[in-house]
Design goal:
The complex is a heterodimer of chains A (452) and B (108).
Chain A: H1 2-17, H2 26-42, H3 61-76, H4 81-85, H5 91-110, H6 114-132, H7 139-170, H8 183-200, H9 210-216, H10 219-244, H11 251-271, H12 277-294, H13 303-332, H14 343-346, H15 348-362, H16 368-382, H17 386-411, H18 423-441, H19 445-450
Helix pairs in contact in A: 1-2, 1-5, 2-3, 2-5, 3-5, 3-10, 3-13, 5-6, 5-10, 6-7, 6-10, 7-8, 7-9, 8-10, 9-10, 9-12, 10-12, 10-13, 11-12, 11-17, 12-13, 12-17, 13-15, 13-16, 13-18, 15-17, 15-18, 16-17, 16-18
Chain B: H1 12-32, H2 36-60, H3 65-95
Helix pairs in contact in B: 1-2, 2-3
The chains are: A mainly alpha (452), B mainly alpha (108).
Amino acid sequence: MLAIITLTIISIFILFLGFSKNRGMILPLGILALAVALWSIASGNTFWNEYLTNMISFEGNSKYFSILLIIIALAIFPFFHELIKRGNEELADFIGIILLSIVGGLLMVSYQHMMTLFLGIEILSIAMYVLAGANRRSVNSNEASLKYFILGALASAILLFGIALYYASTASLSVLNPTIKNQELYQLSILIIMSGFAFKVALAPFHFWAPDVYQGTPTLFTTVMATLVKIAGFGAIFQFIQAQHSLLPNWIVWFFALVIVTSMLIGNIFAYNQSSVKRMLAYSSVVQAGFILMGFLNFKEETSWMVLFYLSAYCLASIVTFMVTYFVEEQSGTDHIHSFAGLSKSNPILAVVMTVALISLAGVPLTAGFMSKLFVLKNANNIGLTSLVVISLILAVVSFYYYFKVINAMYSASGDQKFKIPALYQILLVCFSVALILLGIAPSLLKMVLQI
Amino acid sequence: MYKPDIIEHISLNHYIILGTAIFIIGLLGVLVRKNIIIVFMCIELMLNGVNLILASTSTFYSDAGGQVMVFFTMAVAAAEVSVGLAIIVMMFKNLQSLNIDLFGRLKG
């Protein structure tokens, strides 16, 4: 509870700080709020927890999801210093809104009651609609914001419809231990709730908003969208399945398998020929979401670690790829693949970290991406879905093509003008790529980090 | 919780079917209509169909949770509309139109 209170109060304070001339305070204050929230969740602080009776619980796996969410937020936060450099007037608004969206994410990964789930999803989504339209004068940003808003509101309404049917079939809004009164209605509600979740984490066939929104949103906020929203969404799916897995109907495995295969097929087919790197990364995130869902096929104790490991590998790689895209876009004005040509000459460090992140997304051995794919494929194999494993292996090999197209462009010649980025960002990006390789060599490091 | 007798005259299934019908009318409106304001109203219609199911179920099972949830849904819908109208104003300033079809610029 202390984490939620701190984040909310400081984000409102930051919104008011926007009126003052002193902008230097805003970022350190945001990082402080995140640090306090991280400490209170990691130490199991029980301040005012009695007011949350059976609505939220920061224990067990939701604690690890919350810690991962806040760590990834802390990793992204230093990059928002870019907003100050450009003399952005709305810095306070953006930082405040991002802190509020993290509150929504925390509710989503720790809910015990449908009301908290719905509130969490809405707090996170409404914040994201605003961030998608952050660049008011650009029509692309407007379009991204409007598309995200209409499709996101539609998804929320569908999820709420599922919740209402769940309520009608069990006579209780609590996620834990429902007594089912009407089996058909319950199964229908599970299908609709899962579709609503799939919409939020951009799993095909509910992915069609993702490429447009990722491309139109200012790149700094696309990073937030690709990492925090995914962690919160999969945390919510995990919480739901953890509470219900003994009651779930048998067809849920086939529903998941269908969604996984469509995500991988559609993501790979459309990513194949993209010239915009952001759009390519959006389709690749659809493929990665399919892989993460594979971890839920066989629900048992280790599922949470598999999902957490995949999420942390994916998020670290996403931060690096989107931030490098941001710096290249700043330099050349476009995220077209041609603007990456010769990056190894003009800024070798960016080229190296981008290469590490891309091969981790592709799943080359000795990176975190490889280990995470290995875990989820082993999980699918354990319940006898060998054909699913074979299909996803073939599609993973296909995905090498579009990742290596970017790498090939970076190391081809014809880079002339050199450009520099501040040393802090370089150090951070190098740290994240080193972390990707370390996690690939010793996956158990993640357990140590999350069990602080 | 107080449960009026009259509500027993119509079974819960009828309320659920009515709510679902309103929800689907709203869904079709979102998919078919071109004017953003109408699309907005259709989303509200979907939420109200859901609210009907929540409130009637809550009365039938004498559980207050559903009716409290309706209040939260209304509050959240109001917050959503305030952000949505801001987005529409922003779009209208740049394009001078409310037609959804103008938005096809982002393509692969």
